[in-house]
Input
Amino acid sequence: MSKLVVMKFGGTSVEDATAINRTAGIVQGRRDKGLTPIVVVSAMAKVTDQLLSAASAAGRGDRMGALAITARLRNRHLETACALVAQAVGDCSLSKMIDAEFDSLDEILRGLASIGELTPRISDMIVSVGERLSSRIIAEAFSHRGLDAVHVDARKCIVTDGQHGKAIPQDAAIELRLKEHVLPFAEAGRVCVMGGFIGATEKGVTTTLGRGGSDFTAALVGGGVDAGAIEIWTDVNGIMTTDPRVCPTALRVKSISFEEAAELAYFGAKVLHPATILPAVKKNIPVLVLNSRNPENEGTRITSLAPYCRSPFKSIAAKRRLTIIDVVASRMLMSHGYLKAIFEVFDKHKCPVDMVSTSEVSVSLTVDSNEKLPEIAADLRQLADVKYEGRKALICMVGGNIRGQNGIAAQVFQAIRHVNVRMISQGASEINMSFMIDEDDADEAIRSLHDVFFADPDPEIFDVEALKESSLKS
Ligand code: ADP
Ligand code: ASP
Ligand code: MG
Output
């Protein structure tokens, strides 16, 4: 098996000097086992959000607001970097690079504020600063701690198309670039460190892979170099039975199939980016989700086949900020070509649809709430009457064992009997059961469902030991 292991550290795992030092220790641990890590890092926690705020402030003409944000970011990066290499901010070896990056960022923001128009291309340019800086700081910090690290600019490797904000990676080109820019270092036993989330077109224009996209980078790199494993290091013990922030009794899932994990990620489990799994599935590379604050924990293993589980569900995800669009046509009565015409409208606006339900005269669809909705509705009104309603959440219950089990739906709807359910779907994949409710009811519904379906968890699949330990403590 390949000795290459791709290790991706998310924002909280690199949020400050303490976290970055912990990361270095984890990477060293893999080296000690004879593995060669290729490290993919996110921007430091919250930096991407702040860069986006700076960009939109400048786009509205608020130059002072934008520059105030970058001034704070500049200090945070300088302080972290200098603490890591044990130098004072004044004489820190990394500070020239950091200052130069922020000087040119401020230049862009000033220009943007006077033009007053933020394009997706400029937004990508601005937001990429987070990963460009974190990866360089972390490579230097690793070297300072005696790890033989080398920084690789991800934009040289992750070749994408030009869809700014959600660019599509070009697998074949990426594989070639990794052979050129990463493998020679890895084969020499060096630790490559690159930023996640960012890429560039063939012409070298900076792009990004969508929010949470560093996981995707890790999977692309893992697939491209045929790694033996891909490790996603985050701030929880692995994939849990639901978001632990919503439900504190959530349990770690020890093992889950690619299919189940992909479904969960797509339907809102933030712990993994939806597209992460695909490059790994294609090459059958195991993916592990691990906790950088608790590296001894064995985490979640994502494999092609999950072992048998006696519970119907593995996990509950929620996708929020959705809108339901009802298209009601009394005239056309599902005539031939009608659905096609509806979907063409969504296609025209490049707007993905999550769920669809149809009746004789109406079609309901759900989409992410977005600024294009009025235009989409206007186009749909050419075909039929249209209503839309925001602030909805899609609750998605995932598990390989719902296939062919009787009475599961009755149990689900009994658990949330006080909630108004708008649309229901048992996914085409047969491993998910989803329904749409008001966003305000989502947390309560998740907790009720969790109480019912994880009351007696299968110890082969779920970490029930943690549950026993926490009840002993309390
Ligand atoms: P990172 O910065 O490491 O990429 P994210 O914030 O993107 O981390 O993802 C980790 C967070 O995902 C956790 O802190 C948790 O609140 C949230 N989360 C949502 N659903 C789940 C789930 N089913 N299992 C684990 N974490 C989840
Ligand atoms: N920094 C990016 C984001 O916050 C990518 C990532 O962390 O995965 O979306
Ligand atoms: Mg993430």
